[in-house]
Amino acid sequence: MKEVYQQSKQELFEQYGGPQGHTGEKAAGLLQKYGENVLEETGRKSIFRIFLEQFADMLVVILMIAAAVSMLSGNGESTLVIFAVLVLNAVLGTVQYVKAEKSLNSLRELSAPGAKVLRDGRKMEIPAKEIVPGDVLLLEAGDMAAADGRIIENYSLQVNESSLTGESVNVNKKDVEIAGEAALGDRSNMVFSGSLVTYGRARVLVTATGMHTEMGRIAALMNNTKEKKTPLQISLDDFSRKLAILIMGISAVVFGLRLHQGEPVPDAMMFAVALAVAAIPEALGSIVTIVQAMGTGKMAADHAIIKDLKAVESLGCVSVICSDKTGTLTQNRMTVTEVYLDGRCMAPEKLELSSPLHRQFLYNAILNNDASISGGKEIGDPTETCLLYMARKAGPAKDGIKEEEIRSMMPRMDEIPFDSDRKFMSSKYRVNGISTVFIKGAVDVLLDRIDYIAEGEGIRSIEKADKEKILRQNQIFSENGLRVLAFVYRECQENDVLSAESEYGYVFTGMAAMIDPPREESVKAVSDAVSAGIKPVMITGDHKVTAAAIAEQIGIYQKGDLAVTGQELDRMSDEELDQKLDRISVYARVSPENKIRIVEAWQRKGHITAMTGDGVNDAPALKKADIGVAMGMTGTEVSKDASAMILADDNFATIIKAVLNGRNVYRNIMNAIRFLLSGNLAAILVVLYCSFMALDTPFEPVHLLFINLLTDSLPALAIGMEPSDPALLKNKPRNPKKGMFTKDFTIKLSGYGLLIAAATQMAYAQGMSVSSATASTMAFATLTLARLFHGFTCRSDFSIFRIGLRSNRWSLAAFAAGVFLLAAVLWIPCMQGLFLVEPLGAMQVCSIVCLASVPTALIQICRVIKEQAEEKTR
Fold first, then answer.
1. CB 667 within 8 A of CB 741
2. Cα–Cα distance list, 504 to 425, 447, 781 (Å)
3. CA dihedral (70, 72, 74, 77) positive or negative
4. DSSP codes, 67-85
5. Beta bridge partners of 610
6. How far is it, in rounded angstroms, from Cα 771 to Cα 399?
7. Which long-range contacts (CB under 8 A, 24 or more apart) does 808-811 make?
8. Are 555 and 530 in contact (CB under 8 A)?
9. Residue 202 dihedral angles phi and psi, to the nearest 5°
10. Which of 394, 374, 393, 370 lies closest to 382 in space, CA to CA?
């Protein structure tokens, strides 16, 4: 069976319907048959399944066992509290997952375009999702093709298919039949969903919608890609597994020891439960999730939309950013940077309408141009649009004349459009009563057709030296990555008809050099990336010379670096690529396969790699990268689905801001984890000491749950709100293979835990002089208050005097709230009964406050001494 692009029009009309489109009634029936013209999602989990998956964790299982033991032992309060905590964590995780899904759906709705079609024999605009096979699309410059289709009427249609093929050059479409097999990019009689019409117009018979389009096929492939775990996920999973094994082992030993010491089975079991509850950081999962969620809010304010919470901390590991050039590092707007007139270069702003030479040059740029700018909307080829902006900055704007007025005064009389063979465009006008042909195009093609040159003094015959000078300047422009157009004209008779044979004898006016310039913030962003130990790499479909020139301007391409094309990359073996990888800063004219290979090469070297992209062809590489970054303004739905982060402003600088936020989130998470675990370690040490010394249980399970869930959670959340420090970008990316428990982290955690445990044990010893219940109450109050003070210590590795007590007001609020809750438990009668505490005297309270403050005071004194010593050595 013939493919759609191989069929004749008659065969297409018989299969899909006639050139006048469907009736409304028939279209409604086909919509029921084929479904909406949207990209479908597969494998979406139910909310109930997402909720149940929150319990698939070893530590959660241990807590559930602890709750069951508490229930069997008659301790209903502890059982209810533990189950309440588990359900709360599961609900929080489920809500966050659903929220991320809704955000993605919102992005889909925003990107869904409308479409103009023929229905019931008349033109109408409908939502793109209602298009069905057999509809006739009416496409013109500025439209986005909403489905795949075959061209049945063509009027110089040019389409940008970069979202699908990766080629940034506009494609000329034709109303022809194609015999034999043709690659996707060679199907010149087809228009594909997601393609942008840049020039001309056409009528297109829709042949495929939704998941049956070329874009839909790639979307289907992407649905099968597996999700990767982040470095923090791997570290936390490893920690949870090891902690679970350790808890079960120690609890069993303690249970056996208590039985050996003659304690009844229920009491021994409660001791083991207390140890398990003390060891498990119940709030850890929630704290990590909430801190990440707060990080996404900060990133969203900086135009970085995080789809997956877990990707937030991964940004802190990123060591390579492979960035697209157009629109991300550059402004995505062609701009004339220099013009060459009268033998010299000048800025476009210096053009004057009062100069005859300048006026002729500007008339050519405005009149011999099919683009337009209306209400801030650009229609037409970007190269022609930038010429209009050039003219607006020059003579016409200064005299209050806009291009529409010039065009209305001098209407077009004849034209020969630009095509890839001629490489120039010609059009005819009456200028000052004289019929004039304006031409713009490639310098090398037009130079042989030029007989004269226009200068400030007038027009003269062009000489060999003049042509050599023009070619030399053209070469200089090209070496700097600039695209160059030559502008020529000739006067003619009014009845002369434009033809290929008459396109000679021109007068050279000048040249315009243009480029898609770097964003102003790109230079600083690249510099910040390099300072942060991140290797920025440019990957583009543009030419190597242009790409290298832009990369050099913004600091990506340095002396000694390499720029390679996709073809050169194809010729390299993996071993050769690995050897050159660190030196290659620019990849030009690359294919989707090239992008995946580049990502894999960096990952082989152990680097966490971020990749930007906006097209369907970028989706596999976005999925393959550790952090896929899609463009929010120009990105396709498939690229957004494949990514972990979406740039709302398509700006490279936003990635660097996201990296800073990611590093800050990770730092805050690690500080919060250190805070939680050091406090838990203190409780474990006290429980173990009492167990080995055959002392009574120092804590009731409800005591430890109160500490872990209330008084610990508040300071941990406050630590997660610690503001970002730009100095974080001066550090090198962390090594994801090191995991959480580095030597420095473990030493500090252990030291903090020992100090708090010692203070708690001293309070317990004092209380034992009164009674076991008083000892338990004093140990509980001291541990709680010590951990509240400890929250200030864990905000940073610096002393509180350096970072400032009020630089994070949330930490002060958390401390105050924790003290209030502790006071309520100690002094409100009904709370005393619920939390199994004894009334305390004034001296006992003073002792608790003094002992609880000692660990934090000692740590802060050591930090101040260290900081003063460092200042003296500077």
1. no
2. 13, 10, 97
3. positive
4. HHHHHHTT-HHHHHHHHHH
5. 321, 627
6. 96
7. 808/718, 808/721, 808/722, 808/723, 810/717, 810/718, 810/721, 811/715, 811/718, 811/719, 811/721
8. yes
9. -165, 160
10. 370
Q: How far apart are CA 146 and CA 153, in angstroms?
A: 17
Expressed in angstroms, the distance from the first to the final Cα of the chain is 80
Question: Read out DSSP for 677-725?
Answer: HHHHHHHHHHHHHHHHTTPPPSS-HHHHHHIIIIITHHHHHHHHTPPP-
Distance, in Å, from the CA atom of 689 to the CA atom of 772, rounded to the nearest integer, reads: 15
Are the C-beta atoms of 376 and 370 separated by less than 8 Å? Answer: no
Q: Is 528 an active-site residue?
A: no
Q: How far is CA 597 from CA 220, 591, 600, 617, in A?
A: 21, 10, 5, 14
Q: CA nearest 399: which of 353, 361, 357, 368?
A: 353
pLDDT at 43 over 60: no
| Mean of pLDDT values over 256-284 | 74
- What is the number of residues in the chain? 874
131 and 123 Cβ atoms separated by less than 8 Å: no
Predicted local confidence at residue 404, as pLDDT: 84
DSSP state of 144: B
Residue whose tokens read 């590795």 = 797
List CB contacts of 671: < 8 A, sequence separation 6 or more: 719, 722, 794, 795, 796
Amino acid, res. 763: A
Residue 252 has pLDDT above 60, yes or no: yes
Position 283 scores a pLDDT of 65
541, amino acid identity: G
Q: Is residue 227 over pLDDT 60?
A: no
Quote the tokens at residue 269.
């079991």
pTM here is 0.68
For tokens 């006739």, what's the residue? 136
Whether residue 768 contacts residue 637, with contact meaning beta carbons closer than 8 Å, is answered with: no
3-state secondary structure of 546: helix
Neighbour-count burial for 250-282, b at 16+ CB within 10 Å, e otherwise? bbeebbebbeeeebeeeebbbbbbbbbbbbbbb
Range list of β-strands (E), 295-406:
304-306, 318-324, 335-341, 344-346, 372-374, 377-379
- Beta-carbon contacts of 141 under 8 Å, excluding residues fewer than 6 positions away, are 197, 198, 199, 200, 201, 379, 380
How large is the average pLDDT for residues 169-183? Answer: 82
Q: CA Rg, the chain, in Å?
A: 35
Say what the alpha-carbon torsion angle 825, 829, 834, 835 is, to the nearest 10 degrees.
Answer: 40
- Cα separation, 548 vs 570, whole angstroms: 19
Return the H-helix or E-strand segment holding 247.
helix 231-260
Q: What is the pLDDT of residues 598-613, one digit of tens each?
A: 999 999 998 999 998 8
Centre a 10 Å sphere on the Cβ of residue 573 and count the other Cβ atoms it contains: 8
Q: DSSP string of 645-660? A: EEETT--HHHHHHHHH
Q: Which of 571-580, 740-749, 781-790 has the lowest mean pLDDT?
A: 740-749
Residues with Cβ within 8 Å of residue 219, at least 6 apart in sequence: 39, 40, 211, 616, 619, 637, 638, 641
37 pLDDT higher than 60: yes
Q: What share of the chain is helix, strand, coil (3-state, %, to 5)?
A: 55, 20, 30
Tokens of 817: 């709230």
**What SS3 class is residue 845?**
helix
More confident residue, 513 or 499: 513
> Which one is catalytic: 135, 302, 324, 641?
324
Cα separation, 543 vs 637, in Å, equals 27
* DSSP helix/strand/coil, 216: helix
Strand partners, 306: 645
- Paired tokens of 92: 């929080």
| Mean pLDDT, the chain, integer | 84
Hey, what are 620's tokens? 């596999």
Q: Is 405 helix (H, G, I), strand (E, B) or coil?
A: helix
